[in-house]
Amino acid sequence: MKHRDLKTLRIEGGEISEIEEHLPREVELEIFANGDLLAKATITPSMEVEFVAGHLRYRGIIEEGCEIRSLLIEGQKAWAEVDPRSEKGLGVGAARRAGDAAGTVRADAILRNLALTLDSDLYRRTGGTHTSSLCRGTSILATAEDVGRLNTLDKIFGWGVLRGLDLASCYAVTSGRITSATIDKASRFGIPLIASKGAVTTLAVEMAERREMTLVGFARKMRMNVYVGEDRVTLD
Questions:
Q1: For residues 172 and 141, is the Cβ–Cβ distance under 8 A?
Q2: What band does 233 get if pLDDT is binned at 50, 70 and 90?
Q3: Sequence-distant (≥ 6) Cβ neighbours of residue 195 within 8 angstroms
Q4: Domains, the chain, ranges and CATH?
Q5: Which residue, among 131, 106, 115, 140, has the nearest Cα to 47 in the 3D structure?
Q6: 69 φ, ψ to 5°?
Q7: Which residues contact 236 (CB under 8 A, 6 or more apart)?
Q8: What are φ and ψ of residue 2, in 5° steps?
Q9: Side-chain half-sphere of 167: how many Cα atoms within 13 Å?
Q10: Tell me: the pLDDT tens digits for 14-24?
Q11: How far is the C-alpha of 29 from the C-alpha of 183, rounded, in Å?
Q12: pTM
């Protein structure tokens, strides 16, 4: 269950009433790699396997999904067994400069996929979650929801890692603002383009430029701002 119904009091217009509120669930998840505690995360309980796979890739523990020998979720613990050759420390994986594998993406495809991504029943119920999608061309490959905006990226990128996708040929759309942490996360998976309905920060622009990514913000209705890497966004 991604949300919890809770009776609460509402004070409005000088009156007090009891209402049923829908709250997004947040749980703690401990991630173990080959028996060692790797990280503690707080997530919305959905796509836990994909989240762990994405986190393992982000942390540099694996390069490909096939290096995960087993991955088991037991309550609030995730147990991953990975190939011994993947045990190269707990340092964050290297950032990658975006290549040309993604080619170009139509602006209307970005806008349409973002609009579909934002059409979230969980957000309508709770008003407290973020949503992201992994896309290729005009298609949405995977969508994830979470209370943490960066968690949604781990989930969709982990989905791709488990399926052996070339993430450099994909792009991401997201509901959250784009900060340097967003760019850092996407670049470590080789994602060349990320777009959001929200704002971007100055450091995000600088980092995207250094890593040769395309950065799109304020993508709403029929408009968007392309801050960096405009060659990847076309009108036809």
A1: no
A2: very high
A3: 110, 114, 171, 172, 173, 174, 215, 216, 217, 219, 224
A4: 27-86 (3.10.20.10), 105-234 (3.40.140.10)
A5: 131
A6: -80, -35
A7: 106
A8: -90, -10
A9: 33
A10: 777 665 656 77
A11: 24
A12: 0.88
